Amino acid sequence: MNLTDAAADNVLLCFPHLPDSCPREHRFLVLKVVMYFLTLGTILMTVLGNFLVIITISYFKQLQSPTNLIILSMALVDCMLGCLIMPFSLVRWLERCWFLGEIFCQIHSGLDMTLSIASILHLCLVSVDRYMAICDPLSYKMNVTNFSAAVCIAVIWLFSVTFSFGVVLSKINIVGLEELLMQAACVGSCALIFNRQWGVIVSLVAFFGPGAVMSALYLKIFHVARKQAKIMSERSTVRQTNSETKAHSSEHRERKAAKTLGIVMGIFLLCWLPFFIVTITDPFLNFSTPIDVFDALVWFGYLNSTFNPLIYGFFYPRFQRAFKI
């Protein structure tokens, strides 16, 4: 009994003055410092990188094309994610406490879901834009304007907000989990979980649907880019008979296209696929995924917003000139 009392006295609480407070996570000081350093660095890179994209596109008129308007809106989404979501998620993860109350918990969860879905849908819209530009350039120049791009962007924002806050505020995602939530209820908790049905629905809407569209379109783009590279190589050799040089030029274009598309899709899948796999499977496994593992996967998803401006800065020539890399 004395050992039990001593152990209870050593438990850190989120709100020590409340008897039903959630326990606070105890971590070694060195580990906590390292985790804060890495996550704060990630937040800083996310905010500054996307802010630089926003300023660059807004300042340079030659960058204000339909494609770059989509990238501008996506940078705004990712910058908001870095400013409004990631700092609070950081404290919740490392301290295992939510200090801002139930209302702000719902706002944070709704915004987190909104911005994450919006970021992924912007990536999907970029793939649609690039597909039209490369595979049907004449139609693209006639039909795709800054206005049409703005309409698509507005639809993405409206859908993301409506869908996310509709789910969070209606609490349809936790129907059937009432007993589990009652058992784990304590002051200082803030978690967005999904039952079996909505774990599948949200994952399909937010990731697997857009991801399938992106994969199909980028494969088509790569196929068309290979054909165009060969045609351009043949046309550029009217006065050139060295077949080895021609082949080298064509292969160089193909490798560059494959590298860029591969990096875009690879980073997207690496960041988000593990999280959405767990989102689908965890309800069927009685939520057995450790909390630290789940939160780490959330931050892997956030990293997609950190990498987006780096992709544009390093692989898009116009941004390279604007950034002066």
From TrEMBL:
Main location class: membrane
GO CC, any one term: plasma membrane
Record bears the keyword Nucleus: no
Tree of life domain: Eukaryota
Annotated InterPro entries: GPCR_Rhodpsn, GPCR_Rhodpsn_7TM, TAAR, TAAR_fam
Family: Belongs to the G-protein coupled receptor 1 family.
Compartment list: Cell membrane
PANTHER family named in the record: HISTAMINE RECEPTOR-RELATED G-PROTEIN COUPLED RECEPTOR (PTHR24249), TRACE AMINE-ASSOCIATED RECEPTOR 4 (PTHR24249:SF220)
Entry's Gene Ontology molecular function annotations: trace-amine receptor activity
Protein name in the entry: G-protein coupled receptors family 1 profile domain-containing protein
Membrane topology: Multi-pass membrane protein
Ranges annotated as spanning the membrane: 33-57, 69-91, 103-128, 148-169, 200-222, 261-281, 296-315
Ranges where the G-protein coupled receptors family 1 profile domain occurs: 49-312
Organism listed in the record: Astyanax mexicanus (Blind cave fish)
Keywords, ordered alphabetically: Cell membrane, Disulfide bond, G-protein coupled receptor, Glycoprotein, Membrane, Receptor, Transducer, Transmembrane, Transmembrane helix
